[in-house]
Amino acid sequence: MKLVMKLCLAGVFAWPCLPMAAQDADWWYRAKETSLDLFGTVSVGQEIINNISRRRVEDNGRLGLGAGVNHFFTRHLGFGGDAYTENTQHSFVDNTSGNFIVRFPFESVRLAPYAYGGAGYQFDPGRLWFGQAGGGLEFRFSKQVGIFADARYVFTDGTQNFGVGRLGLRLPF
Predict the structure, then answer these.
(1) Which 3 state secondary structure label does DSSP give 11?
(2) Phi, psi of 125 (to 5 degrees)
(3) Per-residue pLDDT tens over the stretch 55-89
(4) DSSP state of 106
(5) How many domains does the chain have?
(6) pLDDT digits (tens, 9 = 90+) for 98-156
(7) Is the dihedral of CA 92, 95, 100, 101 positive or negative?
(8) Which of 143, 160, 153 is nearest to 26 (CA)?
(9) Which domain holds residue 131?
């Protein structure tokens, strides 16, 4: 009898969630969503960040290419990993990192601002661990194709702190 009561109570509390679960398929930003990121980067040193100007970034920025994977276990919370290179003459991958991501989707305009933080490892120019925090914006053209732009501030122990900007294509599946 207790088991039947527990099942009935579980059904009563689960009932309001059913329309939301069915509606999840119609959302642009879904729970249990995985995506592939392909992006370009620009890195600038601490001195440039403190005195930012278009000319200083053009003269002192380092360009790169990278890829990443993200997984959202809810519509708002997920994690991701990425790697990029700025100089293929040394290590093929210069930086790798993992992040916890919080996004705030606006379904009506297919836009999702997000914030993230995490840690990583730098292989080139020096080998060291780092922490990072940043934020960005994603726009979806369709449920399978979007673009994103973000920026992060990287905290290091072994070298000067630096910033990284990314612009890329996001392919959710």
Answers:
(1) helix
(2) -80, -25
(3) 666 667 789 999 999 999 999 999 999 999 987 67
(4) B
(5) 1
(6) 999 999 999 999 999 999 999 999 988 778 999 999 999 999 999 999 999 999 999 99
(7) negative
(8) 143
(9) 2-172
Q: Where are the beta strands (DSSP E) in 10-145?
A: 33-45, 62-72, 77-85, 95-103, 111-122, 128-140
**Regarding beta strands 128-140 and 146-156, do their DSSP bridges make them parallel or antiparallel, or are they unpaired?**
antiparallel
CATH number at residue 156: 2.40.160.20
Instruction: Give the 3-state secondary structure percentages of the chain, helix then strand then coil, rounded to 5.
Output: 20, 50, 25
136/41 Cα distance (integer angstroms): 13
| Residue type at 22 in one-letter notation | A
Cα-Cα end-to-end distance for the chain = 44
Cα dihedral 28, 30, 35, 38 in deg (nearest 10) = 30
State which amino acid sits at residue 58: E
Give the Å distances, CA to CA, from 31 to 25, 27, 57, 96, 159: 9, 9, 37, 25, 38
DSSP state of 167: E
